[in-house]
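Structure in, sequence out. Go:
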């Protein structure tokens, strides 16, 4: 029998080996562990060096999985940015965390930085006591300027309201015995400075004083109860026809993540406070502490970090710097997002040995390339365009469409079920070019478009937006497709979308082509014996396509969602397998009817013969 083992990444935590024993994690009441706090402090000091002056506000993403692995180092990072440190029950090396205390400014040597924190739904459910700890931490930071605030408040015409707001803000830490009033200057305490500014704005908007004070200290935001993340900004980049301006996706992020989490109130929608704080953020940080998945293996990375970044960009007018708290190795440090992404590409997507191993996995490997790496590159490209360069997309073409390493990967991606993954890869490349994110030459676009068109013609559409949803992109791509392929690829796309843009002039409304089979899964064409479900699943893009090769459209607009559409427009449809009809399905044969009647008659006769 295996002894209990610590659950963690086995590379960074060798004690997690051997596997097979009962796992134990960490005690949430001890978070942040003292050594984890010191790691967070080190990363905070490193992070602040990248700014010319101390930033007034930074943003941090908190995940449950990262907290489980780093023992609270990211929480320690947040605390030290604010100039706070944990108070332990039994000293620094062990014991539960009782609260936090302010580090004197004379020791800190810099202003206290305000921090806007976003949490995942899993963090909310897994570490509720950490949410309370952080909420108290923000109030303790304000308390470090309590005397200064009172002096400033007494100068205001609304002094009594502001005093009521301040007292309401201090209430939870007073009850917890953590209230220590201080006299930090406001220019050295951005948490207190922002609290006063935001409270005044809320009072001017008619919010009652006590509510205004508590709302203004809200710094922890996440999804609503029952939700787990920012679904809109996660799915939006993959549905390019649903938006014209990428900043529209910021609105979906704010809508999904506007819920404030405090000790005195949970999941309150406070979009006005969230947006006020977003407007001051200069940099956003997200932890990665596992060797198993990189930044491009998981869409939640761009959902939380990229979504945070684009929301700041929308509210402030300037894109913030995005960073990774790299805790994968023994020495935690801060890296730019671009550097982290580039390493991910070099070690995996561009790595010949990694590609060879993926090819051994059959369709699972092909699907991972398309549905994880390429889709997630799209996510980062849309949410943070400077993180994905033209060269990165060109490398995808060279390696996977031109077989740069002579691995046979292009052929492998073009046969059987793998073809649907290649349709996804090439379709996403076309989408990035059509939206103006990827800039390349006409020859490359013709290679990509003809690879995409040939596989659709031979295998049917792959049910991604790039072959049955994004009407405008597909219309645009046709200018690069060889004439001998046009009729066949248009026939397949017409069958999927019923868009007049792809209909043959000889095609009657009831035409239903025989298409190649796709044996299920995430991607699928229409197989013989299946019929199309003609209920629209969403709007599709129409118009806005440039007429000349090499041009890219930024102005495509959502199409119709009604039952009919003008010429050149179309709708995306869900594909569903309907019941197959047969001769026997239309009615029972005559002999079967007589058999049933005879059986009923015999049962009836037996019943009556038994009666006395």
């Amino acid at each position: 029998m295996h002894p209990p083992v610590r659950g963690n990444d086995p590379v960074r935590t060798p004690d997690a080996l051997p596997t097979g024993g009962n796992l134990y994690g960490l005690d949430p009441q001890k978070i942040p562990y003292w050594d984890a706090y010191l790691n967070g402090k080190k990363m905070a000091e490193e992070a602040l060096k990248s700014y010319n002056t101390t930033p007034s506000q930074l943003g941090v993403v908190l995940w449950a999985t990262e907290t489980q692995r780093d023992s609270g180092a990211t929480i320690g990072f947040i605390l030290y940015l604010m100039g706070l440190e944990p108070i332990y029950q039994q000293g620094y090396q062990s014991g539960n965390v009782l609260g936090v205390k302010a580090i004197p400014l004379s020791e800190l040597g810099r202003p206290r930085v305000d921090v806007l924190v976003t949490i995942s739904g899993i963090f909310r459910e897994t570490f509720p006591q950490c949410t309370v700890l952080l909420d108290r931490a923000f109030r303790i930071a304000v308390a470090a300027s309590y005397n200064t605030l009172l002096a400033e408040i007494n100068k205001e015409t609304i002094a009594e309201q502001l005093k009521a707001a301040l007292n309401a803000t201090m209430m939870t830490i007073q009850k917890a015995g953590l209230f220590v009033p201080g006299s930090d200057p406001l220019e050295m305490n951005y948490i207190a400075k922002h609290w006063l500014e935001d409270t005044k704005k809320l009072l001017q908007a008619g919010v009652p004083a006590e509510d205004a004070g508590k709302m203004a200290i809200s710094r922890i935001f996440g999804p609503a109860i029952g939700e787990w993340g920012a679904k809109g900004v996660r799915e939006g980049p993959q549905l390019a026809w649903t938006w014209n301006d990428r900043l529209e996706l910021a609105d979906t992020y704010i809508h999904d993540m506007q819920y404030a989490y405090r000790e005195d109130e949970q999941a309150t929608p406070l979009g006005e406070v969230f947006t006020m704080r977003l407007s001051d953020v200069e940099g956003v940080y997200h932890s990665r502490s596992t060797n198993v998945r990189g930044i491009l293996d998981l869409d939640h990375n761009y959902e939380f970090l990229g979504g945070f970044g684009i929301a700041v960009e929308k509210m402030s007018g300037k894109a913030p710097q995005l960073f990774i708290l790299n805790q994968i190795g023994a020495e935690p440090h801060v890296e730019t997002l671009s550097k982290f992404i580039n390493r991910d590409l070099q070690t995996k997507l561009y790595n010949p040995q990694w590609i060879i191993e993926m090819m051994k996995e059959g369709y699972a490997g092909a699907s991972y390339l398309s549905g994880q790496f390429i889709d997630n590159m799209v996510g980062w490209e849309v949410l943070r365009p400077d993180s994905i360069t033209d060269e990165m997309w060109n490398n995808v073409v060279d390696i996977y469409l031109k077989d740069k390493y002579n691995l046979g990967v292009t052929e492998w991606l073009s046969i059987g079920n793998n073809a649907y993954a290649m349709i996804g890869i090439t379709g996403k490349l076309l989408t990035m070019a059509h939206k103006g994110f990827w800039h390349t030459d006409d020859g490359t676009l013709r290679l990509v478009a003809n690879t995409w068109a040939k596989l659709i013609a031979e295998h049917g559409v792959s049910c991604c937006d790039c072959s049955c949803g994004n009407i405008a992109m597909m219309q645009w791509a046709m200018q690069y497709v060889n004439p001998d392929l046009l009729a066949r690829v248009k026939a397949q796309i017409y069958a999927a979308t019923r868009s007049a843009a792809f209909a043959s002039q000889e095609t009657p409304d009831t035409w239903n082509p025989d298409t190649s089979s796709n044996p299920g899964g995430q991607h699928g064409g229409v197989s013989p014996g299946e019929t199309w479900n003609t209920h629209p699943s969403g709007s599709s893009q129409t118009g806005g396509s440039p007429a000349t090769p090499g041009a890219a459209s930024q102005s495509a607009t959502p199409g119709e969602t009604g039952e009919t559409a003008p010429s050149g427009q179309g709708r995306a449809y869900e594909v569903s397998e309907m019941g197959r009809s047969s001769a026997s399905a239309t009615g029972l044969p005559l002999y079967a009817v007589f058999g049933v009647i005879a059986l009923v008659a015999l049962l009836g006769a037996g019943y009556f013969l038994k009666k006395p």
